[in-house]
Amino acid sequence: MFYDALNKQCPLEIDPFKALVGPRPIGWISTVSASGVANLAPYSFFNAVADEPPLVMFSSGGHKDTLLNIAETGEFVCNLATHDLKDAMNVTSGMVDRSVDEFELAGLEKAAGKMVSVPRVALSPVALECRHTANIPLKDVEGAASKYEMVIGQVVGVYIDDGLIIDGRVDTCSMQQLARHGYMDYSSVSELFRIERPS
Ligand SMILES: Cc1cc2nc3c(=O)[nH]c(=O)nc-3n(C[C@H](O)[C@H](O)[C@H](O)COP(=O)(O)O)c2cc1C
After folding, report:
1. Pocket residues for ligand 1 (CB within 6 Å)?
2. Which residues contact 79 (CB under 8 A, 6 or more apart)?
3. Which of 1, 6, 43, 54 minimizes the number of CB atoms within 10 Å of its CB?
4. Quick one: which atom of ligand 1 is closest to the CA of 94?
5. d(CA 116, CA 118)
6. Is 21 helix (H, G, I), strand (E, B) or coil?
7. pTM for this one?
8. Which atom belonging to ligand 1 lies closest to the Cα atom of 68?
9. What CATH class is the domain 22-188?
10. 42 CA → ligand 1 middle, Å
């Protein structure tokens, strides 16, 4: 099949776009408001976009609590969502009042950030502590504003569970990194293979 996406001609009942670009990593973003309330939410429009300096981005459909907190403090942490933490991750995607601490809501312990004043998820084996660098409002081909806004941050501190480091490398297979497909589907990595680049 083929469809004209510009004019929203998709004949399928559910738009498959998010199922076609995947699996996507999940940035499980923790933030704190200026008044000190911790917040946690998953964002699958998330990725690393550079490594010198290390930069990550996520994209928010509206001015959600995460964005409001980053605007107030300039800091956030990307926690790795794993297979074991999938239910807690899902709880933190609920729309709750800004006064609710979503770590507490999901029964998650906090660990203090080292380079930022934002806590990380203690059970998450990897956390990227970030300082905000830019917000990019997104627009369509005619220049009309999208409801999405991209947030970019520089990774200033990296937490890795020591148990994941084997022979100087991170054992990314045993991280059980959770990824988002379309619809309500997820996967976690259970097998890796290696390909050497041509010289
Ligand atoms: C796996 C998953 C991925 C999500 N990805 C995004 C995303 O990329 N952008 C977005 O705006 N919302 C996304 N959401 C929805 C937000 O997590 C949800 O709106 C949440 O309440 C936002 O929380 P906040 O207001 O505390 O920032 C996602 C939800 C789930 C379960």
Report:
1. 26, 39, 41-45, 59-61, 64-66, 90, 93, 95, 180
2. 28, 29, 30, 40, 120, 121, 124, 126, 127
3. 1
4. 21
5. 5
6. coil
7. 0.97
8. 27
9. mainly beta
10. 5
